[in-house]
UniProtKB/TrEMBL annotation:
PANTHER family assigned: TYPE-4 URACIL-DNA GLYCOSYLASE (PTHR33693:SF1), TYPE-5 URACIL-DNA GLYCOSYLASE (PTHR33693)
Gene3D superfamilies assigned to the protein according to its UniProt record, in alphabetical order: Uracil-DNA glycosylase-like domain
Catalyzed chemical reaction(s): Hydrolyzes single-stranded DNA or mismatched double-stranded DNA and polynucleotides, releasing free uracil
EC number: 3.2.2.27
Single GO BP term: DNA repair
Species name: Methanosarcina flavescens
Keyword Ribonucleoprotein: no
Entry GO MF terms: 4 iron, 4 sulfur cluster binding; metal ion binding; uracil DNA N-glycosylase activity
Family recorded in the similarity comment: Belongs to the uracil-DNA glycosylase (UDG) superfamily. Type 4 (UDGa) family.
Every Uracil-DNA glycosylase-like domain range: 31-173
Record protein name field: Type-4 uracil-DNA glycosylase
Stored Pfam families: UDG
Record key words, sorted: 4Fe-4S, DNA damage, DNA repair, Hydrolase, Iron, Iron-sulfur, Metal-binding
Amino acid sequence: MMVEAGYETVAREIIKCTRCPLHESAIRRVIGKGSCHPKVFFIGEAPGDNENKTGIPFSGRAGKQLDKMIEYMGLSKEDWMVTNTVKCHPPGNRKPKINEIECCKPFLLSQIILLNPRIIILLGNTAERSFCPGRKLEWGVPVEHEGRTILKLYHPAALIYNRSKIETQNAFIDRNRGLWS
Ligand code: URA
């Protein structure tokens, strides 16, 4: 029903959502950032403190790292979109719980159906848990899933805390450039 009504309706539903307790402490709902016709759709984990204030996903330190990754991938701004498994900031920056991820999943799926990206990049294990529950993907190895190509890469924050992962991430990107170029 949300999908038929269009993207703006999905955004409005996100803004007024009270399906899980995360809405109680959220300042802003964090819907998405990027192109309306993305080739690549990134799924992060959850809005952080910064995103909670700005309402823009990946607008803090992890966002700077994501920008570097996108640049290394050679994507232009028409090529990509980013969102998270949940649209509200979990208090204390904790990981979102399974029930919170499940409550928010209809929004994520509606965004994907409406924007229709060819490639979905799961940024870390939480994104994998949300989008492919029960499935364990290999880092950097693409799989087909319901008509789209799914690729699991490291979350940008993991690259900040473990700089040695940047080289591995770049190798994953190099190996998969054909998917989006
Ligand atoms: N980490 C995420 O997973 N998402 C954001 O929006 C910011 C940091």
